[in-house]
Amino acid sequence: MKEHTRAYTPSIEKRRLVDRIYLHAITRPTQVALECGTRSLTYAALAGKMDERVGTLSGSVGPGRFTVIERRRSIEFVVDFLAVLALDGVPVPLDPDLPARRKETLLGLIRPGVVLRDGAAILGVMSRDGATMPGLVSRDAAEPSGVVLPDGAAISGVVSRGAAGPSGLGEPGTTAVADGAYVFFTSGSTGRPKPVLGSAAALTSFLAWQCAEFGVEPGDRVAFLTALSFDVAVRDVFLPLWAGATLVIPALREADSPEATVAWLRHSRVSVVNVVPSVARGWLRHCRTRCESMRTVFFAGEPLEASLLEEWQLVFPGTRTRINLYGTTETTLPKIWKRLPVSERFTGALPAGGPVPQTRFCLIDPAGPFDAALVRAALRNPAAEGEVVLVSPHTGHGYVGMPEETAARFADLGGVTAYRTGDLGRVSDGGELVVLGRADDELKVNGVRIHPAEVAAAIRACGPVNDVHVTAERSAGRARLTAYIVPAKGRALDLLALRRDLTTTLPVAMIPTALVELAELPSLPNGKIDRTALRLLAQPGASPGTPTTEPATRPITAPDPDRRPVTAESPQHQRSAGAQDRRSVGAEGPRAWRSVRTESPQDRRSVETEGPQAWWSVETEGPWDQRPVEAESLPDPRSVTARGSSEDSEPAAIRGRSVEVGAHVAPDGDVERWLADRWAELFETSGVSAGDDFFALGGDSISAMQLVSRIRRDLGVTLSVRDIFAAVTVTAIAREIADRRLLAMDADELLAMLETVEQDASDAVMDAPSGAAGRDFSGVVGQNVSGAARQGRCGAVVQDVSDVSEQDVSGMPDRRGSLTDGCERGAA
How far apart are CA 645 and CA 669, in angstroms? Predict the structure, then answer.
């Protein structure tokens, strides 16, 4: 393969993507192209908006230039993506909700010349020497402020058709190969993400085939639900725009929980959707609303089970076209497919299928070398089992800036490219590809590719860690990312704090839902990790003698009830054995303990009643986050405290309140009690402790979405899934809710709250038993005065409260910092 040069030939295929919009603007100008909430654009209007944006960006976006688009799913995102393509640039979608440190890492890998972002306050792009570069364009700016950096060397690690080998590292603003259509990032085996350069020719080829094969037409309404961190978002966007159909985008918070998503699909009359099987299961598990408009579904991202198809038809009975797709980000969209007719019955795990046109696959020795000659031999003499290699003229262009990683996975066969997937597979009797698992340690959780090395590197960076093993434990058909951690000798780990730290560096999908601390990792006689022993160590009542080695364990979840202190009046004694087991195991999964429920719709029918849809009416309360709530059961919306006001309850500071995982602590305050009740409903248990870990009870990102939706509906406070990962316990989430309420207060409301806090502290001192004399009551104040103030987030009201002294607030020093200290720090 030849080294890339600076000579740049405009991409015909990228132009085809843009010209489809102009074609539809002429042939069907009044057809709605984009719809988001109450906003919409016809194809004629979309072409006009695209032209306007091209004019704005023409001085900043150049041919082959990496241009980051840091936006949420929106009409603006689509317009910018198209405008960058029209300027022959390379769009790089970046999810605005990623942690700042993660964004810095991704931007550092591709070194873009321009970042497009909403708002006036725009983050800088760090150059190689650490200085902040310009090169940023705000949609709200009057003129583009972007600066395209000078040409540099060719981008390394990029495969070019007919090229002989990888080239050197490129500088910021350098050009990609002309066919480069976009960049998405995958998890890296070296501990850092890998930027994959997608192909415009591969994208147009797939779209033309997909529309023709499955009859996608102008009357269709295609959902845009894929997160912007994943390349399936490209299929979401361009499938309808290629066909002249309508791309339907959920407005902010319209589809932020499984229940809300299905309701949105129904309300928006969506007819075509791309979905990962595990995400689809989340929709079906919590939904009791039919969506009659759906007619076509494309499953992709992980193995598909036949049982899911049956459940899908119950919620989406109008579905007539069901397709299983298989491919990788590196191959630019799927390369294997299988049609699943509604008239046929399927069982077990379903094959991935056969190749799309112009594509072949072969199986090679996963432990062997990889080069063009080996692939040609494997194509001539097909193996029955081995590692899957996809061969096509339409694949991606490798990893930007990573020539060694590119050479290890891509091989040029002359006109076609082979990609080594890392997946193990076999050929069925019918000649179809069946994917069996991984040849390496890469994991798939909810359709997201995760390299354990990347998660382990983030954990090591957070604290004194000697060893880490990250894996995906499966229970009841669901995968939960689990990290087993060995702290440095003589050092203790705060596992809850560790998880909070991980929320600042990793995407939500890569944050382990179960953390288990070990004295050492169990090993087999050959020195390899004893995975069976690890699973046993995470179970309640695990015996130290069970594994090959005998490490002591401390899971982040609550210990086994038999080994932890429980107060005499604790509701813990009333829990069922199943609930106790679940509380003791963070890696068990949310459904393994539900012995009263069966695993499939068929089982439910046979146990509960007759008929194919009888289970539909078994639970009459409706979706969990849409259940009606009595007004008197809701906390006072004006409250910013997590402390109860019951006259017969002692203040937390007097009781010596503890919220550590372990001993049962009754929820204290309206908000804590409300949260505990919601957790009890969500996980079908009772006696939730203030210190219980959401994920230890069986929570995951999907149930966190449900909780976020319910908090916003009932309490009027907007949290994110990342907030749930960071807060974890009832008490911590209640405190976060109080923080948000405090931030929403104006000066008068804050001053009134201060008076209440002062009175509460005074009452606590006056009402304290004689034995409590001399105790520190600052915890009463600290519990009422939100952490937001103590962390310096109240600068807006400092002029109104700066004359309130620390003594005025509590009558004694607050060991965690006074309210006025926090406000003054915020003002400074």
Answer: 7
